[in-house]
Amino acid sequence: MDGNGRWAKRRGQDRIYGHRRGIEATKTTVKDARRMGVSYLTLFALSTENLKRPRRELEALFNLLRGYIRQEIEQLVENGVRLRVIGRTELLPKDLQELIAGALAKSKNCRKMTLTIALCYGGRDEILRAAAKAMRLKKKSLDEKTFSALLDTAGMPDPDLLIRTGGELRISNFLLWQLAYTELYFTNTLWPDFSGKELRKAVKFYQTRERRFGLTSEQIEEKSQF
Ligand code: FPP
User: Fold this and answer.
1) Taking all residues of the chain, what is their mean pLDDT, rounded to a whole number?
2) Rounded distance, CA 114 to CA 50, Å?
3) pTM for this model (two decimals)
4) N or C: which end of the chain has fewer CB within 10 A?
């Protein structure tokens, strides 16, 4: 969800104002994705690197997250949305950890969509933590399936589509393992301007892609006949 700071700066406002507008875009995007029938939506809200941002900005982000969970959790549950978090959430303020734990419990039986929020998240960090888990469990051998099950995203399918807003053409340490065959969509739109219209545009782009997973077109065609 990149571009909040630039969005605010262009309007002569503080970065925090941009994050506040970013939350509005988050709320509408979650609702639009649910309406469109998306089964898994994962939002990169805070990276391990973002934790080094000025204290004031971090506090504002934590407050926005608190507000989001408090205001939205009932509606999310009503709409069948299960909340999940990935990342080193133990680095978050205690009260926020508790608020998140409560929201996870409330939504645990929801099955229509899984909304995953990446917090204090870094792809390399996640891979290292999974490798450390494998060592602790004294795994004699590892394949992709057993390693995936040690990641924060255990049990979730790999993403079909990645949308990066804000005009940067990079992955920035997001879901490094899981994105191996994901279709990538980049837009110059800054996150606070992101909308259902943009989401539909990204999905349209996705629908034009042929996903071969390393195979040939002919092999994919053959497979789809069964
Ligand atoms: C990147 O914009 C955005 C962030 C670091 C924070 C995103 C977080 C939220 C929108 C709020 C919390 C999320 C949820 C799910 C409730 P930037 O500040 O790097 O923008 P810039 O690249 O223009 O400076």
Assistant:
1) 96
2) 24
3) 0.94
4) C
